[in-house]
Each structure stands twice: as C-alpha cells, then as structure tokens.
Amino acid sequence: MDMAGHSMIVAPDGTVLQSAAMEAAVITSKLDSTAVDEQRHRFYPAGDRSWLTTDHEKVQDLDTVAAKTRLIRRQGSRLAFTNGCFDLVHAGHVSYLEAARRTADCLVVGINTDASVRSLKGADRPVNNEQDRARVLAALGCVDYVILFADPTPLRLITTLLPDVLVKGADWPEAEIVGASEVKAAGGRVVRIVFQHDRSTTALIDKIRASARAPINTF
Ligand SMILES: Nc1ncnc2c1ncn2[C@@H]1O[C@H](COP(=O)(O)OP(=O)(O)OP(=O)(O)O)[C@@H](O)[C@H]1O
Ligand SMILES: O=P(O)(O)O[C@@H]1O[C@H]([C@H](O)CO)[C@@H](O)[C@H](O)[C@@H]1O
C-alpha cells in the first residue's frame, strides 16, 4: 500500500497498525485473524449480535453497578435510576421503564426483595419472587442494570449512585420520592412519569381472584 505523510493503517477500534514516514513508501501490516474476528463482532452489528448484554449479566449488586456506571459516566453518559416492586409486570411498567430510559443513556432499576415487598404491600405479596421479577425486568431492552434491595426504601442505592435523573411514576408526589433531595443537591433532576396505561398489579390480582370465584360457564 503506497502511503506517505504520516498516513496510517488503523484497525476499526482505533489501534494504529502501521504508519508511514514523510516520504512515499509501501507499508504493510500483518492482520491478526483473531483480532479481526473479535472486531467484526464488535463493529459489525448485523453479525451474531454477541455484543447484546444477556439478561443475567444485568442483575448485579450495588458495588458492581456503581463501578460499571462510574466508567460510562466518565465517558459522558448520563445515568437514570428508578425503583419499584414490579411484581406482575404489565404494560404500564413497560411504558414507564421505556420513558425512564429515554431520560438518560443508561437505566438502573432497583427492585425490592420479597421481604421488602411484603413489608410494603402485605403478606400475600409478591406473587412473583425476587429472582423472577429481576429476570423479567432484565429482559427489557430499555433496562441496563437491575439491583435487588432489601431496605424499606432505595435511599442507599440512590445516594451511592447519585444518578443524573431519578425517575418515579406520577402516582408519587415529588415530596414523597425517596432520594429526590439528595439527587437534586448533587446536581441531578427528578422526573415523574405520567401513566399511559391504567394498569396496576393489584388490579390484575383482583381480576384473577374474581375470575377464580366466578361460576364456570356450563353449556
Ligand atoms: N400503569 C402504570 N403506568 C406507568 N407507571 C406505572 C404504572 N403502574 C405503576 N407504575 C410505576 O411503576 C413503578 C413500580 O410500581 P409498582 O410495582 O408498585 O406497580 P403497581 O402496578 O402500582 O403495583 P401495585 O398495584 O402492587 O402497587 C413505580 O414507579 C410506579 O410509579
Ligand atoms: O413499586 P412502588 O411501590 O412504586 O415502589 C416503592 O417506591 C418507593 C418510592 O421510591 C418512594 O419514593 C420505595 O421507597 C419503596 O421501597 C418501593 O420501591
């Protein structure tokens, strides 16, 4: 390859494989086939999509998520955080989480453990256990990380992560949103998402119970 004037041969990830001096010259570079395959997977999105994060990689502890999000925020990405019980996930949850993700570049969701849900919503809740609830949310493309928390509130997660955006449903007045003052004091903002679907887990459970009591149609 005829090159001159500090021309370079650069790999897709920016690695300089070879550079020319001022005078015209032929320069070559041996290509490492393993490196080429690895970069094809990273830079060629129509490939086997191995770059997609698999669900179980998204469910992490707070320290791991704090370290991973610290790195991407140093690169300029903004972090959004929300939390909830997310027992029987419904269309309202999905539209809510998609809207939450759109407020930033990365979305972390705190999910209450089973014991925490029981203390908040009663002894007959949750219907789905914490592992299943985490697994379902991790399958949503708009969710980047899921953290299970046992405390009554997500305050420790929020003060550790100090997200750029704290998101909650509009069913929560800002004054009652845990972490709101801490996030705003750190320069972040609070976003309350208006419901697009009139859904709730409680209503779903009531519907299931009512249908179980209803007489079966006999012909
Ligand atoms: N219909 C909805 N549309 C948008 N967001 C919702 C909707 N229902 C709940 N959310 C939001 O989802 C998050 C998780 O809420 P939660 O798990 O309590 O759902 P829920 O359906 O209200 O459950 P429950 O009936 O058990 O209280 C909260 O931030 C809440 O504001
Ligand atoms: O699913 P819910 O009931 O919306 O989730 C609760 O949200 C509370 C909220 O963040 C208070 O501002 C939180 O304290 C509680 O632990 C549940 O996550």
Could you explain the architecture of this structure?
There is one protein chain. The protein has 219 residues and is α/β, with parallel strands linked by helices. 37% of the residues lie in helices and 18% in strands. It has nine helices and nine strands. The chain has helices spanning 33-43, 55-58, 62-74, 91-101, 114-121, 130-138, 155-161, 180-185, 201-213; strands spanning 2-3, 8-10, 16-19, 25-26, 79-84, 106-112, 145-149, 165-169, 189-193. The radius of gyration is 24 Å and the shape is elongated. The chain starts with a strand and ends in a 6-residue tail after the last helix. Bound molecules: adenosine-5'-triphosphate (ATP) and ligand LBLTR5QP. The site of adenosine-5'-triphosphate has 21 residues, from strand 5, helix 4, strand 8 and helix 9. Its EC number is 2.7.7.70. It comes from Desulfobulbus oligotrophicus. This is D-glycero-beta-D-manno-heptose 1-phosphate adenylyltransferase.
